[in-house]
Design a protein that fits this description.
Layout (H helix, E strand, L loop, with lengths): L4 H11 L4 E9 L19 E2 L5 E2 L24 E4 L2 E9 L5 H4 L3 E6 L8 E8 L8 E5 L11 H5 L27 H8 L9 E7 L3 H7 L4
Parallel strand pairs: 1-8, 5-7
Antiparallel strand pairs: 1-9, 2-3, 4-5, 5-8, 6-7, 6-9
Amino acid sequence: MQLPLATLLAILPAAAVAQSGSGRTTRYWDCCKPSCAWPGKGPAPVRTCDRNDNPLYDGGNTRSGCDAGGSAYMCSNQSPWAVSDDLAYGWAAVNIQGSNEREWCCACYELTFTSGPVAGKRMIVQASNTGGDLGNNHFDIAMPGGGVGIFNACTSQYGAPPNGWGERYGGIRSRSECDAFPEKLKPGCYWRFDWFMNADNPNVNWRKVSCPAELAERSGCSR
């Protein structure tokens, strides 16, 4: 049976989306409501929290803490953690070439680091965000103290300095700086210097995988 042209055009782009490849990473933690927390971008909105880090069960409709009058923020439990010496879990802002948020929000990707001190280690990240400054096949890993980047809600949520903790891009420089962080953000900050070995934007090979239950439980979303 020959399919109508409109049906073919709808199917072909999705079929062409890569399920694996090579890419790059950066790091951030801006405390803002992640893009995938808005309704309609994934199977369910990624969970957000109020200023006191209490989960919001709002259907994704609360304005981001990055906006004036907004009160939805990244939840502290969406920080990375070590599963073993060579495997970690976490979240990332994502841009997959040839794809879009409706296809990657809440999806999970296994990153195998190919450069820097973490070469050979693996991390499974769930896509919770995106960014206009991300290149193709780019994973901006969420880690407290990683730099706020373009936006900053950490000042309104936690009283962080105007440019966040450390430099606006790149964040803090030493593990000892994590000691002054809010208690709930300290483990994710220490993770950067312990498991992640303070790697500076390592390259990766990536592939799409099923989401571990631990990630889906914290984010409230999975594919």
